[in-house]
Design goal:
- This protein is an alpha/beta fold.
- It has two domains: about 150 residues, 3-Layer(aba) Sandwich (Rossmann fold); about 200 residues, pyruvate-formate lyase- activating enzyme (Alpha-Beta Horseshoe).
- Helix content is about 40%, strand content about 15%.
- The protein has 20 helices and 14 strands.
- The strands form three sheets. Strands 2-1-3-4-5-6 form a six-stranded parallel sheet, sandwiched between helices. A six-stranded parallel sheet has the order 7-10-11-12-13-14.
- Helix 4 links the parallel strand 3 and strand 4.
- The chain binds cobalamin (B12) and iron/sulfur cluster.
Length: about 475
């Protein structure tokens, strides 16, 4: 038996990068398949003509025994691509298995689709081999995986994916960088995050010595940057120290990037630990700050007060690595003052630490099964009820008007302006426009001067043509 592991296209964030991110979800599945089951990863993002390439793959398989396709899906425009590929492969007689965050959160809704045969709710390393046993015997099944013991899970073998294809330069032009995962889940309970429903607010870690071995192996193969996609890496400081000491001891000249860092964890990091991180080659720490409004932070159950955020940011200014901050706007109950508080915080953070980069104020989108989704019902919001409704929703995401947003056009203008002083668009060939308009964007945003903004319509046209900010 042979299984086709499919990574569908995602959207803007992948499109604007020099190369897409490594398909880690599938790499974990592949590493944990029994030896008797052969597999191949097909990454739609690397194909200019996916139908032709899939046909080639299927027709040129010497044994011609692909019996199923395992597809990873998150709640996003990726659903559209996952559906197209599923229909295409189903017509060729393959059984279709969906897994990933979307399937995990909405298994009942997902299994109703005629082109989906099996759904995996949760982690797939044990589930996939079991489902493969059922193919041909049972149809339409939801497999609910328990939280796995990570000691028993094999780490991905990066040899199967040509790591150089997946280097991403967007963070730092000089380092071939690849994603890596060293732990799963997060104990926090932010009301907009998938973690509580998907990982039951439980944090589990892979043995750090295994992670270190993987880093060393990739280093030998020329990879110099490692982007940790852990939901929350710094839960166990001793474990983190072990990694940093290993890198220093082995004299690995690497750049390390961490996403999803919690302000209260960073607040506890002392000078000695931060120096160790610096010596090990930490380049970027990504924080999900989300809002500058204390009231909204409580509503979102977001750890860390504004005082703590500014204190951490000032503390980190002393070190070589940069601070990357994510923000959103348009939360249910958000007032004009709340938005203003977020904008003020952005400017304050950038002022206090010249190495702090604030990413665009992304319009808030409620995700399935999150606590905040319940609040949206108070505004009469009806969440999508099927994969097709989700696809329709994400196809129109830029034009979508949520009933709780006070002034959608103003929110959109603020989002657009906030894009101009982030690194995100610098790699799209739009740098000259960015340089000219950046001071104007700063002035407008700082003063919330957006009522007369004729250039908004021009930028909107450009965004629509290129799809920026929508999908
Ligand atoms: C890296 C990343 C990305 C990368 C792309 C990832 C890739 N595959 O190439 C980029 C930066 C492009 C990205 C984009 C987005 N992302 Co993102 N991303 C992540 C991140 C940080 C890591 C993903 C990863 O590699 N995980 C490691 C693997 C091993 O875990 P996994 O994917 O969960 O896979 C396991 C199981 O789910 C299951 N499984 C997965 N697929 C399959 C398939 C089958 C068949 C089976 C059986 C099992 C199975 O088994 C796997 C092993 O146990 C996650 C958070 C996280 N820590 O997981 C968010 C996450 C997936 N992203 C998320 C979101 C919302 C987005 C955006 C939509 C955000 C936005 N508003 O812009 C955008 C996409 C839209 C756009 N316009 O581009 C959410 C998804 C929530 C949801 N309901 O789907 C997550 C969970 C973050 C969060 N905290 O909410 N993302
Ligand atoms: S801290 Fe981050 S990963 Fe943890 S629950 Fe909050 S948003 Fe999710």
């Amino acid at each position: 038996m042979k299984v086709l592991l499919i990574q569908p296209k995602i959207g803007l964030l992948d499109d604007i990068r020099s190369s897409p991110e490594a398909p880690l979800s599938l790499m974990y599945l592949q590493a944990n398949l029994p030896k008797s089951i052969r597999s191949e990863i097909f990454d739609q993002r690397l194909s200019s003509n996916w139908k032709r390439d899939l046909n080639l793959l299927l027709n040129h398989d010497p044994e011609n025994d692909y019996s199923c396709a395992a597809i990873t899906v998150m709640t996003s425009h990726q659903l559209h691509h996952a559906k197209e590929i599923s229909i295409f492969l189903k017509k060729k007689g393959l059984s279709i298995i969906w897994g990933g965050p979307h399937a995990t959160l909405l298994p009942q809704q997902t299994i109703k689709e005629p082109y989906v045969d099996y759904v995996v709710e949760g982690e797939g390393e044990e589930a996939l081999p079991e489902i493969l046993q059922m193919i041909g015997k049972r149809r339409k099944l939801i497999y609910c995986s328990k939280l796995l013991d990570l000691k028993k899970i094999k780490l991905p073998d990066y040899n199967y994916i040509r790591p150089y294809v997946y280097k991403h330069r967007v963070f730092d032009r000089t380092y071939p960088t690849i994603n890596i995962q060293s732990s799963r889940g997060c104990p926090n309970e932010c009301t907009y995050c998938y973690n509580k429903p998907a990982n039951k607010s439980c944090w589990r870690a892979f043995d750090i010595t295994r992670v270190e071995k993987t880093i060393k192996k990739l280093y030998i193969h020329g990879i110099r940057g490692f982007f940790f996609v852990d939901d929350n890496f710094f839960i166990d400081i001793e474990r983190s120290k072990h990694l940093f000491n290993f890198i220093i001891k082995e004299e690995l000249k690497v750049g390390l990037f961490f996403q999803g860092i919690c302000i209260t964890d960073a607040d506890k990091m002392d000078h000695e630990f931060l120096r160790l991180m610096e010596h090990a080659g930490v380049r970027e720490l990504w924080f999900g700050i989300e809002t500058g409004s204390e009231r909204l932070r409580k509503l979102l159950k977001k750890k860390g007060t504004i005082k703590e955020i500014t204190r951490v940011n000032r503390k980190l200014a002393e070190y070589k690595f940069s601070v990357q901050c994510n923000f959103m706007s348009g939360f249910p109950t958000e007032t004009v003052t709340d938005t203003k508080d977020t904008i003020n915080l952005i400017f304050r953070l950038m002022h206090d630490n010249p190495k702090t980069a604030c990413r665009p104020m992304t319009p808030f989108v409620p995700y399935p099964c999150t606590e905040i989704m319940e609040l949206t019902a108070d505004y009469g919001y009806r969440e999508p009820q099927s994969v097709d409704e989700y696809i329709g929703f994400f196809s129109n995401i830029g034009k979508h008007r949520f009933p709780w947003v006070i002034s959608p056009t103003k929110q959109d203008k603020i989002h657009l302006l906030s894009m101009f002083f982030t690194k995100d668009l610098q790699y799209t060939g739009l740098s000259p426009i960015l340089k000219i308009y950046e001071p104007i964007a700063r002035f407008r945003l700082k003063n919330q001067y957006v009522s007369f903004m004729p250039e908004y319509y021009l930028f909107n046209l450009i965004r629509q043509i290129f799809g920026f900010g929508f999908k």
